[in-house]
Amino acid sequence: MKKNIKTEDTIKRWDNxxxxxxxxxxxxxxxxxxxxxxxxxxxxxxxxxNKKILDAGCGEGYLSRLLAKSDANVTAVDYSPKMIxxxxxRTPNELSIHYIEGNCEDLHxxxxxxxxxxxxxxxxxxxxxxxxxxxxxxxxLVDGGTFVFSILHPCFVTPGSGWEKTENGEKLHWNVDNxxxxxxxxxxxxxxxxxxxxxxxxxxxxxxxxxxxxxxxCMVEPVPSKEMLEKYPSFEEDFRCADFxxxxxxx
Length: 251
Ligand SMILES: C[S@@+](CC[C@H](N)C(=O)[O-])C[C@H]1O[C@@H](n2cnc3c(N)ncnc32)[C@H](O)[C@@H]1O
What we know:
By secondary structure, this protein is α/β, with parallel strands linked by helices. 31% of the residues lie in helices and 28% in strands. Strand 4, helix 5 and strand 5 form a beta-alpha-beta unit.
């Protein structure tokens, strides 16, 4: 495990990985987003029409585009210049999305109470200063505004977690290790790039959100729907262990 990884380094890694990452994304995102995250995020966000929405850590922008297609007024921010470039290229002229290059930990160019809803899909475990980020999200929301975010499940996806397999590759069970380690670790994303993740316990997440001032409305550990299992039968194994956790909070 590696602890001292600077933000400039993580931006560089996302920049280098942006093209490859984006290739795995269609207009529904990648397969995990299609199966697990999109249905959960959209059910938690509710009606988005005419809402001012911030997509915090937008990547190549598929979620911003889905929101804009549903008539939301979308601002999308990412600290990787390459991701923002790809997101702009992928956005047709008729969708007006305001893309900004910036760090979610400090979005001072955006005014207080600018958004009805903030969504952050698979980003919070990628950034170092989650406390500052939660404060920024709180500042940027109107009173009564909603913050929905998804992360890798902090109880199961930990530094060193993974399947225990037989010699033949049969999956026996999922191993969890280093749960109480908090900080940076490196893990391969896809087949090539080593990316940086930040692990925190579930207690740390929930207590920090409460200390920031948020009210927790609900949490979801998404599983595939019947329809998704018919389309992607191999995801049956996701009933053995949760990969993701999604939070809905209110200011
Ligand atoms: C796993 S990708 C998810 C992208 C997008 N939300 C999606 O669902 O496709 C994580 C993204 O967060 C961005 N990111 C990570 N830390 C960030 C930060 N502190 N501020 C802004 N963007 C950040 C990365 O550049 C990358 O594009």
